[in-house]
Amino acid sequence: MFRRVLAAIAVAALTIVFAACARVDETSTPDGQRQVIHVPGDAQTLAKAAKLVRAGGVISIAPGTYDEQLLIDTPDVTVRGESRSETIINGGGVRPYGVVAVADGVRVENLTVTGATFYGVLFTGLHDENGPSAPTADGYEHWDPEQFPPLERFLVDHVTAYNNGLYGIYAFNSRHGIIRDSYASGSADSGIYVGQCTACDILVTGNVAERNAAGFENSNASDSVVITGNRFSGNRIGMTLLSSYQEAFTPQRSNQVIGNLVTDNNEPLAPAQANGAFATGIGVSGGQDNVFERNLIAGHERAGIIFTNTEDLPASGNHVSGNVFDANGVDVANTSAARTPATANCVADAASTVPAELFAQLSAACAGDAAAAAAAQAYTAELNTPPAPRGTSFKKVAPPRAQSDLPAGSSYPALPATVAMPDLAQFGVPDASFLVERAGTR
């Protein structure tokens, strides 16, 4: 997916006018002396602020609507709005992005991005001197990852991303990062996307994603990706874990999906993508060795979880236990192709499966039955699928209610080399009201 987006950006005209001079304050913070550039006090535009900021500095953005986009190519910069709901970077339905970081250690906090044609906030190691870049038209199968080392260390915190053309918050070819306490809606691909990394060391927690084509999407992001304590409700599909030959590092594997609310993803008034997966809680396409524990997976007209293949990549070795399934068309389905059968998927807590004989195989795999784990799991070529509604333009999705600000007085510590993951034992099965105070429209 990223290739087609970047190819379009590569031909977009990005005009950045830099200031000849501006006042720069050295402001005392809990971390000591730090350069702080105020917008519009010290720089009239976001582009001017990006030119002036030094490594380790801060761009502090006053309330207001900024009809531009911001590219950060200086390391360890913090971009922070003074008011999450009133500091607005607006793409106007014509600019491709809100904020893009192509340098290590960047933080984006306490602001709103809306109206971008591609994505609200992007972190990526795939770039050239002009910003986000794309490999050749030959495709990712010929792409050399060593040519574009991953971006290291990033943070998205208390960001609202709504009504952006494809993605709300996007981390691609990036590692050692956190997406937390943020909100995404009205995205025609996914509200939150993590893609193309190995040894990713990424934490996604405390977020709300609703009224998107997909609430959360992972494509080829593997090893130490933790998705915990989020609300993915009221999208066309709740979340997906995908292997994709359009990106490097197949297959997708080894995520931990723990303590999330994944409910009622049958939303007709979301952008019209994900038609084939409409009304699905969790889709696993070619994903392997992922763990799904203590999630509430409920209210899906099609299915709670679907296992399927991506070309010759099977869904295999996934472990599902300790979850609560309720009011789904079917709790678990396997729609893999006969040429790429699913194997060794264990589901300990489903009440219903399609096909019916899949139930015994999933249970046996959980019980350690080696023969059951090795055998091809029963599949169906057809699954009762409600008609996908037409959906709506990303520009017309109802905006969210005001979201809470970053706590006052938050400091600017440098991002560490690795993410301090939470104790996952503290995340139980959430109830239906989890994070509901942050859901809904104005």
Q: Report the uncertain regions.
A: 2-31, 135-141
- pLDDT averaged over residues: 90
**Span from first to last CA?**
31 Å
The third-level CATH topology of the domain at 1-246 is Pectate Lyase C-like
Keywords: Signal
InterPro entries: NosD_dom, PbH1, Pectin_lyas_fold, Pectin_lyase_fold/virulence
Protein name: Periplasmic copper-binding protein NosD beta helix domain-containing protein
Region (Disordered): 386-409
Outline:
This is Periplasmic copper-binding protein NosD beta helix domain-containing protein. The chain is mainly β and 442 residues long.
Description:
Residues 2-31 and 135-141 have low confidence and may be disordered. With 442 residues, the protein is mainly beta. It has a domain at 1-246: Single-stranded right-handed beta-helix, Pectin lyase-like (Pectate Lyase C-like), CATH 2.160.20.10. Helices cover 7% and strands 36% of the residues. Residues 96-272 form the Periplasmic copper-binding protein NosD beta helix domain. This is Periplasmic copper-binding protein NosD beta helix domain-containing protein. Residues 1-22 form the signal peptide.
SSE order and pairing:
Blueprint lengths: L1 H9 L14 E5 L2 E8 L6 H7 L5 E4 L2 E3 L3 E3 L5 E4 L5 E4 L6 E5 L4 E9 L4 E6 L2 E2 L2 E2 L18 E12 L4 E6 L1 E7 L2 E3 L4 E8 L4 E4 L2 E3 L3 E8 L3 E4 L2 E3 L3 E6 L12 E4 L2 E3 L16 E6 L5 E3 L2 E3 L4 E6 L10 E3 L2 E3 L5 E3 L11 E2 L5 E2 L3 H9 L3 H5 L68
Parallel strand pairs: 2-3, 3-6, 4-7, 5-8, 6-9, 7-9, 8-10, 9-13, 10-14, 13-15, 13-16, 14-17, 15-18, 16-19, 17-20, 18-21, 19-22, 20-23, 21-24, 22-25, 23-26, 24-27, 25-28, 26-29, 27-30, 28-31, 29-32, 30-33, 32-34
Antiparallel strand pairs: 1-2, 11-12
Protein name: Periplasmic copper-binding protein NosD beta helix domain-containing protein
InterPro entries: NosD_dom, PbH1, Pectin_lyas_fold, Pectin_lyase_fold/virulence
Keywords: Signal
